[in-house]
Design brief:
Blueprint: H1 15-26, E1 33-37, H2 43-51, E2 57-59, E3 87-89, E4 93-95, H3 102-106, E5 107-109, H4 111-117, E6 122-124, H5 126-129, E7 134-138, H6 145-157, E8 159-164, E9 167-172, E10 176-181, H7 190-193, E11 198-202, H8 208-223, H9 225-231, H10 233-249, H11 257-269, H12 276-291, H13 299-309, H14 326-335, E12 441-449, E13 453-458, H15 469-476, E14 499-506, E15 509-515, H16 518-521, H17 526-542, E16 546-553, E17 556-564, H18 567-575, H19 585-602, E18 608-614, H20 624-637, E19 641-646, H21 656-664, E20 667-670, H22 682-695
Parallel strand pairs: 1-10, 1-11, 4-7, 7-10, 15-16, 15-18, 18-19, 19-20
Antiparallel strand pairs: 2-3, 5-6, 8-9, 12-14, 13-14, 16-17
Helix pairs in contact: 1-2, 1-12, 8-9, 11-12, 12-13, 13-14, 17-18, 19-20
Length: 696
């Protein structure tokens, strides 16, 4: 496989992406880039190509932390270094794998040597490798939250700290942080989104000519990568020189009071939390001016900076689409415009006269990311949101046209009705799965985890994890005489080491099974039902869960959303969910059983929580009630933790949801009972139900 990197200047379109990356190359203090987009949009290709454009760095020979020989880090673990001449090496691009451990990221101390010899033996991690280069995190939204916190703290402080059992190491860690993610696989928390300086949205081009060019260049690169790169070498050199020139010009760029007022007014107008957005916009506008070869920041720089720095900071919950109202932005900039600014300063083209920027059209994506989109969409503008089409065909019902009757002889709804809006979401308290699991880190159920309170110690399996110092000393103490101990040092062997056992929280698979039949729409309940499910989805987002959505109506159940970390995708499908037809409760439960069976094979450590939202009616087909009872028994026999949300309303209640909960071995709660103020005892009830199933 060729090691030749695809040229940055050969990318097609992706104007916002290329500009954001180049601005960070000019001024790393901008704070990095988060690239959001669907799969196959050249995200990884663009990032890897950028590394070749960065100027080479001077380093102290033999320093594992890439200290600058002119101004070496006084606290470098390999130091102290004397200022002087050093060697040069290309800027590095270091990739952080999704499954990396904290030790791999920040580095690790050799605790065995620290205990036995009293020396600090530190093995640098990826943060040290990335110093003065690029740190690239693909699928950053899938990275464990504690790793993202460590990563962003290091990026903000420019240093990494490793402290363990009284031993402390600090080293410089200044890098260009680039994260890529597919929103369909889940979102980052708003607090983490805010820590990225810029965000760009990318999508595949719908223009045939651009897609043709993408394929043409990709095939040419695959056939002869060296020859292809050679053809673009001139453009690469020109762009590299421009980056170097912009870096040199950056300290002389003037950010005037007029531009500062526009920045502050824009952040205030869009109600952005905190002051980080103002600072990022100021640094971005300054970098834009340097990139354009100017020494003054103009309104066009402020506008482009806002489009890159603000959209993701306006996202306050997972159901908000990032975006910016450009008309409102223009009005704000016009209102606070500096009267003395030249007319040309309001041109929206960030570099209208520059002819050094080579034609960057389609991206062949040699790393498998797929073709790139065609051209910019306004820099950080609103992305399209994928929404399923609303089914037009009515649900299948009784061919005779007679009203459907459900359990107890009550009408259960006729043909399909239009989708209704969800009620206002509300705060819920979490539902938890009984027992202690070992699933992925999250915030829902108890689990043995890498982070949390220490509950015991054990021998390490494989590499040594968090050291349990007291247990290690207890294991080594009885053997000191036989090991010939002389002096104050403790003689520690590998067999003495003990690793901490910690209890934290895990994420779960929350599978929603929602009744969308006519009986649910009969009393205008569907809006309240959707509001309740939306509230539970918001809770699942905050708890870092995977979610799935099954609906049942007519004669069948449908897996509307396979289990995913993207709760906003579930909310989108819920929003357009129509109702009507019979109530095939058994089909919904059987579909849920099949989904959970497959998910257990895919991810055995992730425990499920089944949430059935229904009034308990079962109609359609032969013996619908008996069939639903047998389907519920399958879940109870498998020990699936379940909750039934009873949607029955009105003065006459049949109690069918309670009967279903009994067959599932589940807790039952009403729609009103889901609210935080009314749900205090529900977690305890879920645990009690789980304990009862195990005892039986």
């Amino acid at each position: 496989m060729s090691s030749t990197t695809y040229p940055f200047t050969a990318l097609v379109g992706q104007d916002d992406l290329r500009l954001a990356l180049l601005l960070n190359a000019v001024s790393p203090r901008v704070g990095g880039v988060l690239v959001r987009g669907e799969k196959g949009t050249a995200k990884s290709t663009a990032v890897r190509a950028l590394a070749a454009l960065l100027p080479a760095v001077a380093v102290v020979p033999g320093c594992r932390f890439s200290c600058d020989p002119v101004e070496p880090d006084t606290g470098c673990p390999d130091g102290p270094h004397e200022a002087g001449a050093g060697g040069r090496r290309p800027a590095r691009m270091v990739e952080l794998p999704v499954g990396a451990s904290e030790d791999r990221l920040v580095g690790a101390l050799d605790m065995e040597r620290a205990l036995a010899e009293g020396v600090k033996s530190f093995e640098p991690g990826l943060l040290a490798d990335a110093h003065r280069g690029i740190l690239y995190v693909d699928e950053v939204n899938l990275l464990h939250d504690h790793l993202v916190d460590v990563l962003l703290d290091a990026a903000a402080m420019g240093a990494s700290y490793v402290e363990r059992e009284g031993v402390s190491v600090r080293h410089a860690a200044r890098f260009l942080l680039v994260g890529t993610m597919n929103p369909e696989e889940g979102e980052l928390r708003p607090q983490l989104l805010d820590r990225f300086g810029l965000t760009v949205e990318v999508s595949a081009s719908r223009e045939p000519e651009q897609r043709v060019e993408v394929v043409r260049r990709r095939l040419a690169f695959d056939d002869e990568p060296v020859a292809f790169a050679t053809r673009w070498a001139g453009e690469e050199d020109a762009l590299r020189e421009r980056v170097t020139a912009a870096r040199a010009l950056l300290p002389r760029v003037r950010l005037g009071d007029g531009a500062l007022r526009q920045i502050a007014a824009t952040c205030a107008a869009f109600e952005v939390d905190g002051m980080r957005a103002d600072i990022v916009m100021a640094r971005t506008a300054t970098a834009l001016a340097a990139w354009a070869g100017r020494e003054d920041v103009l309104a066009e720089d402020v506008r482009q900076a806002a489009l890159l720095a603000l959209p993701h900071r306006r996202r306050r919950n997972p159901f908000d689409a990032p975006g910016l109202d450009e008309d409102r932005l223009d009005e704000t900039l016009e209102q606070f415009a500096d009267p003395g600014e030249p007319e040309g300063g309001r041109d929206r083209d960030p570099d209208p006269d520059d002819d050094r920027d080579p034609d960057p059209d389609p991206d062949p994506d040699p790393d498998g990311d797929g073709p790139g989109p065609g051209g910019p969409d306004g820099g950080g503008g609103r992305p399209p949101r994928d929404r399923p089409d609303v089914p037009d065909a009515p649900s299948e019902g009784d061919a005779s046209g007679a009203p459907e009757t459900g359990t107890g002889g009550l009408p259960s709804g006729g043909g399909e009705q239009r989708a209704v809006a969800a009620g206002e979401p509300f705060r819920t308290k979490p539902l938890t799965v009984p027992g202690t699991g070992e699933g992925a880190a999250g915030r829902r159920s108890r689990a043995r985890a890498e982070h949390g309170r220490t509950t015991g110690a054990r021998r390490p399996r494989g590499g040594l994890g968090p050291l349990h110092l007291a247990a290690t000393i207890r294991a080594a103490a009885p053997h000191q005489r036989t090991r010939g101990r002389r002096g104050p040092g403790l003689v520690v062997r590998r067999d003495d080491l003990r690793q901490s056992v910690r209890e934290g929280r895990e994420s779960n698979l929350v599978l929603f099974v929602v009744d969308a039949s006519g009986s649910m729409a009969a009393r205008q309940r569907m809006g309240a039902v959707k509001g309740a499910v939306l509230s539970l989805l918001l809770d699942a987002y905050q708890r870092r869960d995977k979610v799935g959505l099954i609906t049942f109506r007519g004669r069948e159940a449908e897996l509307v959303l396979p289990p995913t970390s993207s709760v906003d995708a579930a909310a989108a499908r819920l929003d357009l969910l129509p109702t009507g037809g019979r109530t095939p409760l058994a089909a919904g439960l059987l579909k849920a059983h099949d989904v959970l069976r497959v998910e257990r094979m895919r991810d055995p450590s992730r425990r499920p929580l089944l949430v059935v939202v229904t009034d308990g009616r079962a109609t359609g087909g032969p013996e619908p009630v008996a069939l639903a009872s047998r389907a519920a028994g399958l879940h109870a026999a498998g020990g699936t933790a379940s909750v039934v949300v009873d949607c029955e309303s009105g003065p006459v209640r049949l109690g069918l949801a309670n009967r279903l909960a009994g067959e599932l071995g589940a807790v039952v709660v009403t729609l009103d009972g889901l609210r935080a103020e009314a749900i205090a005892g529900l977690v305890k009830d879920v645990r009690t139900a789980g304990d009862s199933r195990r005892a039986a």
